[in-house]
Design goal:
about 280 residues; Rossmann fold; six-stranded parallel beta sheet; Dehydrogenase molybdenum cofactor insertion protein; MoCofactor_Util/Proc
């Protein structure tokens, strides 16, 4: 597999990486100019810089580049410790981050889920829409989604990858499906879990989660009602409020576990069919 094929594979999974390239060599070095190595977000590598301490230093710097999101140039003076000759040599390594599009996983392909996929697409997010109904989770129904998955909500994350950089929005068609989706989402490291619905729904589902063994701290990760409070009513307005909150979270502003959006009157495809809950 070529290094660029691995980059594409990682990006599809929503994983970050960094490409390290030797751009200059002076004297003896284990690799020559143009040599490349890919460092994944977990510190594992594809390719080599020749091994030894040189490679270890590049990996350490690459992990920081992935975290910061900014490229850097790393000068290394080779010694016997780095695998060079006694007289030494020098290499200059350019390390460039490969940051994937942020991933939004929408559980529920009803009115709000469909509108949210549309807003997320133009906001630069890679969107995965999940529903257990094939007639809803398909490319024809939601053409803006990068991926549609027909699967039950309870064990969806055995199929769909979610890490700390992932955003999850739960907008299924009923309480039971919401509960299944919440339980699944809370087993992931997702940095954002939003639930569409009312304060009444929140109280009921949080009580059931506690009875199922989830800690208050873990349950507190759930943002509900989800979205910023802009007086949203239609699915499109609700989608905009949710996306605004996700962008706020992504750009480093604090989003509490208790949501602040308003939920308009929704159809039976998603959310609370009868709710008109508001927020703080």
């Amino acid at each position: 597999m070529e290094i660029y094929e691995e980059i594409v594979r990682l990006k599809k999974e929503g994983r970050a990486s960094a490409v390290a390239t030797i751009v200059q060599c002076v004297g003896s070095s284990p690799q020559k100019e143009g040599a490349k190595m890919l460092v994944r977000d977990d510190g594992s590598v594809f390719g080599t810089m020749g091994g030894g301490c040189l490679e270890a230093e590049v990996i350490q710097a690459a992990v920081m580049v992935i975290k910061d999101g900014y490229p850097r140039t790393l000068p290394i003076e080779l010694t016997e410790r780095h695998g060079g000759l006694v007289c030494g040599g020098k290499v200059l390594v350019y390390i460039e981050p490969v940051i994937p599009e942020p991933r939004l996983i929408i559980l529920g392909a009803g009115h709000v889920g469909k509108a949210l996929a549309r807003v997320a697409k133009i906001s630069g997010f890679r969107t995965i829409v999940v529903d257990d109904r094939e007639e809803f989770a398909n490319r024809e129904n939601i053409p803006e989604a990068d991926e549609t998955v027909v699967h039950d909500f309870g064990n969806i994350f055995s199929r769909v990858f979610a890490d700390s950089g992932s955003y999850i929005v739960i907008a299924t068609r009923g309480h039971n499906h919401d509960l299944e989706a919440l339980k699944a989402a809370l087993t992931t490291d997702a940095g954002y879990i939003g639930l569409l619905g009312s304060k009444r729904k929140r109280a009921l589902l949080f009580k059931m989660l506690g009875e199922s063994g989830f800690s208050k701290e873990n349950i507190g990760r759930v943002i509900t009602p989800v979205g910023l409070s802009i007086g949203s009513v239609t699915p499109e307005e609700i989608a905009i409020s949710i996306m605004a909150q996700i962008i706020q979270k992504r750009r480093g502003n604090i989003v509490s576990g208790i949501g602040s959006a308003s939920c308009g009157r929704l159809g039976k495809q998603d959310g609370e069919a009868e709710t008109t809950s508001s927020a703080r």
